[in-house]
Every structure is written in C-alpha cells, then in structure tokens.
Write a structure and sequence with these properties.
The structure is a homodimer. The first copy, chain A, is 34% helix and 20% strand. Chain A is α+β, with helices and mostly antiparallel strands. At the A-B interface, strand 9, helix 7, strand 11, helix 8 and helix 11 of A face strand 9, helix 7, strand 11, helix 8 and helix 11 of B. Chains A, B: Its cofactor is FAD.
C-alpha cells in the first residue's frame, strides 16, 4: 500500500530556505533534474534538494520532515544502480556532498572519523600515503562516497579476504526522523555493549536514519601486491584452477572471473591497443587474482599461485600473466574495461549483481547463458568469483524491440538464482529495480519483522519511501 | 522497572514434560542447580530445564512461553563470564547441548550449516582435516559452542586479521517468541537483500530469539603459521615494537600482550617446568604474535617480524623465541596459562574484558595499575593488543576483606575505560555483571531504540530478562 505524502508547500519551502541558506536549498526544476536519478534507469523529480554542512541542519530537517510527513531521500554521488537514491515519492533530496571532511585519521587507533560525503578512493589514497589501509573497494570507488558505501554496505573486489563495508564500520552518528542523534559504537575495534545498531544501519539504504559521521576501522597497508591474469579453455577449467588455488592455502584479496562473452567484448576493446591480446579471442574464461601482504611473502605466494594454476586439471591455462608494481594496474585495467566494453556487443544492457553459493557459480553462469539463448539475447557474466557474486549482464537492442525479452531474461535470471539458494543482490541492494522480486526471496515473517523494525526508527515512513521491502 | 513473571504451574510443568519427554525436561532442584550459573559469580535457580532436539520443540516452547509470560534463558556450555545465561527471573532454561550436529560442510560453497550446540573447537578440528578454516577462537573455544559464540558475538585471538564471530555468520534460522521461525541470510558470502537481521541477532545474547540453525562462512585453511614470543623491558618498549610490526606491513592473525604482573604470575607457574624461563622474572612486558598464510610466506614474514622487533626503539627485546610446527603451541601454552597462573598471586580475581581505542592501551594499562595501587590491590593486564581488548584483572583476597576494594577498583576501571573512549565489553557482553554501568556508556536515546527493537521481537520481555540494557 502506497503512503500518500503531501506536496511541499510554500511554508515548507520557506522553512528549507531558512535552514539551508544561499544555494544550500534548490527548488527550480532545472536544478532539481540533476538530482532525479542515479546510475540506474529510473528517475523522479524531488520537491527540493538540500545540502547540509553540519549535523544540526540534518536534525532540524528530520524534525520537520517527521512532523510534516515529507519524504527524505539521502544522496551523495548517486552511483547506485538500483534506483536507491531516486525520490519516487517527491519530497526532499539530501545531498551529502558538502559534508566531505575527513575529521580524523589516527595511526595509533587505526581509526578514521569521516563525514559521509568523502569520496572513498580519495580517502584511501590519503591513507596509503600514511601506511594505512581501508579495504572496501566497490567498482565505483573513485566516484562514490563513504556515506553511500556504508548506506548500501558496498562490497567490491577485496571482500574475499577483507569482508564488505559493514565489517569496517566501528561506529557512527545517525540522525533519526524526529531529529534525535544516535551515537553508536566507538573507536574500539571490538565492542559488544548492547544491540548492534551500527551494523543494522550499515546497509539500511537510507530507510532508517541519515548518517552525519562515520568511524571506520583501518588496517596497516600491505607492503606489496601481485596480480595474476589467466585465460582458460572453458569455464569449468577456470573453476578447477580456482579450487586448486584455495587448496594451496592461499587467500587472495581478490578473485575475479570473466566468461566467454565478456572476453569477446574485451577482445574488441583491446584489438587496437598495443600488446598481444589474441588470447582474448581464444579463451573461454579468465580469472584475475590479487594477493597482498609483505613484499617477500607476496613474491613467493605469487609463484605458488602460478604453480597451482599451471598444475590444475586440464593442460593448465592457455594464457598467464603475473605482474606487480606499476605493471599490475594494467591487468586490472582489463577488469575495469569490462562494463564499457560490453557496449561493443549490444547498445543496451541490464546488469544484475546476483550472488549464489560459491559452489553454484557454474550452474548460474551456464543457466544465464541458456536463458539468453532461449530468448535470443546474448549474455555476459563476470564478477567476484570468490564471493559467488556475479555481475550478470543481459545484452539487448532496444531499437530492435528486444527490451521485453531482456525484461523476461532478468526475471528468469532471478528465478534461477533463487532456485540455486542465491540472493537477488550481493552488493547493489534491492532499491526500486528489484522490489518486484523481493517477496520471492524474503518470506512474510522476515519482511514483517523488517517492517516493524523500520517503524521503530521511522514510524511515519518518510525515509526513502517506495524502496526495498516496503 | 522489573517485570513480574508468574511461577511455573503444575500445568506448565505438564506441558513441558509432554513437549520434552524422558529426561528432556528437568524439574528437580538437585538437577536444576547445575543450570543455575555460568563462569561468572552469579547464580539463580530456574523453574525448569528443557533440552530440545529439534526446531519444532523450540517453536512450541516459545509459543507457550510467549502466551504464558514465562522467562526463557538460552544456554549451552555456559562459559560466559558476565552471567549472560543465569536465569535471574526463574522460568525455563533451554539447553542446546542436544542440538549438536554439523548438518553440512561444503567445500565448494565454503559454508557450514550447524546446530547451535556444536562445540567450536571440535568443529574447527573437523574442518581443518578437510583443508577448511573457521577463524573465530574465543579462549573458551574447546568447551564453548557455536550457538553461544554467535549469541555473544565472541571475539578471540584471531580477530585482528579475521574479525569476530559476527563477520563469519552468513545466515541462521531463529525462533521468535510466539514460535515463528525466521530464515535469515543465505549460503551466499555476500547478501544485502533487506535489513541485516542476521548481524543484529548475532551478539543479541538470547534477548531477541533462539537460534535453531546457523550458516557459517569458511575460509581455506592457511597452510602454515609461525609465532613469536618476545619479552621487553617495559610496556612502552613493547608498544613501540608492535607499532614497528604494523609499519612493516604485517597483519598478524593474533597479537597478544602481557604486563609485568602477568609475567610474574607466569614465572611462578613455569618455575619448575623444563626450559629457561628466567626472562619472565626480568621482562616488564611481553608480546605474542601469530602469522598465518602459505608456508613460504609465513617463513619469510616470520623473519620480517623478528627483524622489526629487533630493530624497534630501545635495545630490542630482551627475549625472543620464534616457533612453528609442533613447537608453536608451546608458546601459546604460555598465553593459555595466564588465567590459572594469576591465582599464584591472589586467591580471588575479578577479570574484565574492557576495550579501548588501540592508541589508548598504554594509558589504560597504567591507569589500571594506578587504581590498584590506590586501593592496595595488585592488578594484572593481558589480552588482545591488536584490538585494544584488555583482560584487566583485579587481584584480591576475599578472606582479608578486600572484596569491597576490588569492587571499587572495578568501578574505577570502567570509569577510566569510558573516559578513554572505550567500551565496558569487547567480547564478553554486558549480561548481569556490567548492567549497573551500562548507562554510563549508552545514552538514553540509544537505549530507547534498543528497547523498542527488543519489543519488536519480544513484546512481553520473556527472552533473557534481567540482563543487558533492560
């Protein structure tokens, strides 16, 4: 049942103008339009955009919005792909980009305190210069923010070894609808006093509270890393090779995979680039590993990894490149090129971040391909093999009337994934675009508890309404 | 305000006897007394003990207890030190020891599905034989259970590298008061569909629901490990050495410390054992590191660690021993001997698992010693340096009338720790014994939200009443 929210009145606009002076509040449609969508396809115009610079403004805003029943949508760089920041019920978009200060980095405590609008990649580079390390690295790392990462519990490449964003949040200040501030957690690396509200809010996607400050756990920066890119004849061979690596007792910080169609797209992308990329045309699957640790350890582990790959079932990889130092990023450039490269094969794509139990990855990839064949569409699969987190891409051409088939393929993919014991989303969230499927994964009892917990935080349902399990 | 619960009636006993036939339900005081306490000092007699063997029994039990307002206390091996399992309001103790089956270990999924009564250490040894690894290792690992570990979000030695229990729980089946079962999470290593109820229940200490099944994340077993025990002239020198290790880019799986008084107790313990233990009498502090990973990596990292320690400020350690393979456990035997050894110095002790930000460990240790001196008591501090998680022990002699001073020291310790931005508990929980201090750490707003979340799960307050923030 959709809640009906009132429109922003003239007095509401006056209130916001007073609270966010100058260009801190925007109302003109031509200004609002830039805040209507994210990296997904849905869009909706808010009634206003506000840009807080301090916690007190967020408190006053949420006191007012709670009383007046005005929807509130948090947003920073809006790199989300499932419409999580889209203001589908109008109301106010809260942009966190002016709360972008790193308040404290403490090399003794191994802790950083930040405002939510800090860009993750820039934060990480600042830390690395000081010998510190914040592991979470969603693909959007250079544009997305820590606040957005925490709100969505962002994953990324290094989750296999280091876990996801949730595992690196020690505490936060969170403003509730009504304006009250919760000070949760601490700078302690371990803290079990009371219920774990910190990890509940991490990943709650703006449906419960707004963050005004985050306390993050840091690690010592690994001294070195090495990466290995290997091409195999087919997907089974690649999976056997990966199993061999685990059997050798190695825990890579990243383990990415690419299927045949992904490699085909990369072959087009790399055709005119220097170097011999012919293996991209011949391989049926590829794996990309990264190991990190102390310099000598990484060097020897890199060799162990290579041996494990060469000694794996079949004839060993048909391509293998190991790189460290400045050359290493060249291998990761291949990985980062995937998403844009897929447009060489089709003008439109629908990419879903489903996850399955690790042992079901082959079935998921083959199943996706079968769905594509049945519906006359090409499909490409890549992603985080170590987590079973697949980026399943359905390629299509809207101009040839394939949009409907792509939608059918997406639905069939979700059915497949759930039948394998998987999840609709490993890291992007449910948001708008997977809402219709939510009840296929979560039963009524689970959704009921979630709804009642939401009521504790947000009894009037003003926080990111129209998303998730609502 | 204390809720008044009804006593168990004759018809209640009949109900329990029917639901838990044979010796599945106990009522005789001489049988109940064994279920009245845990590793802390508090005790209370329940009205009954029941021993479920399957989920349906837990459902029926919680349906009845919810209707009849009967307190329910979950318990397995009851190794908790803060009275978390003590049935202070009477009612029913639920022993999980008959739900002790490992239901599934999947080497492809890197997942195990277990019942809550499985003993953690036995589970881990079973995994290791298959090349798998479940990292959490509370000191009680060989006697405590996975259900208890998850309920308390147990920490342990390896948290520095691998995180705590919460970080290794992928999903669970949890029975709510009223009997409904929640199926939460999945076998996926990443899953962000809906609110994260799995991590909310991990660490909720039996106050929200009872677990009937747990899905745990596994890792490949590290091929090898090496440990280094080093003695230093004083605590500052030890801390500088630890900082040097982090600066070398090493991330030990464990980093334990021992202060002067702890070493003194160990010196007594080891006096008559073979080997040269004289350094225990001379050192002012000691550190114990463990590194794990592939064989060659660990070998070289062990040397890097040793170099970092020898090259640290001052004259380097006055004692250093590096061991791997069968000799390694000898070093950890020293660590495990601490708790019993402290009784060489005093017949009574109060041990608190406070945590502070990592950079405040020196102040915490020195502050504890100062409190002891002021009150005429000896104090010993050891624990997980890497997490800032201190086991602060106040040594006293009840027979000499020192119990009151010990209580004052405990209160002063909590004040000290909170003034350093620390927490009352890094891993043991609040339970009964730290309840009186809870409001010094958590403000009214935070406690209010916790209470209202508890109401969502347990509106009649029957789950582990009398503990935590209640």
């Amino acid at each position: 049942m959709q809640t009906l929210f009132p429109s922003l009145t003239a007095s509401g606009r006056r209130f916001l103008r007073g609270l966010f002076p100058g260009d801190g509040a925007l109302f003109a449609p031509e200004e609002l339009v830039g805040f209507s969508g994210d990296a997904g396809q849905e869009q909706a115009l808010p009634g206003a955009v506000v840009r807080p610079e301090q916690e007190e403004q967020i408190q006053d805003l949420l006191r007012w919005a709670h009383l007046e029943r005005i929807p509130v949508y948090a947003r920073a760089r809006a790199t989300n792909k499932v419409g999580q920041t889209v203001p589908v019920r109008g109301g106010v978009v809260v942009s966190f980009l002016r709360m972008d200060r790193v308040l404290d980095v403490d090399e003794q405590d191994f802790v950083a305190v930040v405002q939510p609008g800090v860009v993750t990649g820039a934060f990480q580079r600042g830390l690395e210069a000081r010998g510190l390390f914040y592991p979470p690295d969603p693909a959007s790392v250079n544009i997305s923010t820590l606040g957005g990462n925490v709100a969505t519990c962002a994953g990324g490449m290094r989750a296999l070894k280091y876990g996801v964003t949730r595992d690196h949040v020690l505490g936060m200040r969170a403003v509730l609808p009504g304006g009250e501030v919760l000070a949760l957690g601490s700078r302690c690396h371990k803290d079990v006093a009371g219920l774990d509200l910190t990890r509940l809010l991490a990943g709650s996607a703006g449906t419960l509270a707004l963050f005004s400050e985050l306390t993050l756990k840091l690690l010592p920066k690994p001294e070195a890393s090495v990466s290995v890119l290997a091409g195999f004849r087919d997907f089974s061979e690649a999976l056997q090779a990966a199993a061999q690596v685990f059997r050798a007792g190695l825990l890579p910080s990243a383990l990415e995979f690419m299927d045949r169609v992904t490699l085909e797209a990369l072959a087009v992308e790399y055709a005119e680039k220097p170097g011999d990329h012919d293996w991209l045309n011949r391989a049926g699957a590829a794996l990309l590993f990264r190991l990190d640790g102390s310099g000598v350890a990484v060097e020897t582990e890199g060799r162990t990894l290579e041996t494990a790959l060469r000694g794996s079932a079949g004839q060993g990889p048909l391509f293998l490149e190991r790189a460290s130092g400045v050359d290493e990023e060249g291998l990761w450039e291949v990985r980062r090129s995937i998403s844009p490269s897929l447009f060489h094969l089709a003008p439109d794509k629908s990419g879903e971040d489903v996850a399955v139990p690790r042992g079901r990855v082959l079935e998921a990839v083959q199943g996706l391909h079968a769905i594509g064949e049945r519906l006359g569409l090409r499909t490409a699969c890549f992603g985080h093999l170590g987590d079973g987190n697949l980026h399943a891409n359905i390629l299509y051409d809207r101009s040839k009337g394939q949009a409907e088939a792509a939608q059918q393929a997406k639905s069939a993919l979700f059915d497949l994934v759930l039948s394998l014991g998987g999840t609709l989303t490993g890291e992007h969230g449910i948001g708008l675009s997977k809402r219709a499927w939510m009840s296929r994964q979560l039963g009524p009892a689970e959704q009921d508890v979630m709804r009642r917990m939401k009521d504790v935080f947000d009894p009037h349902g003003i926080m990111n309404p129209g998303k998730e399990w609502e």
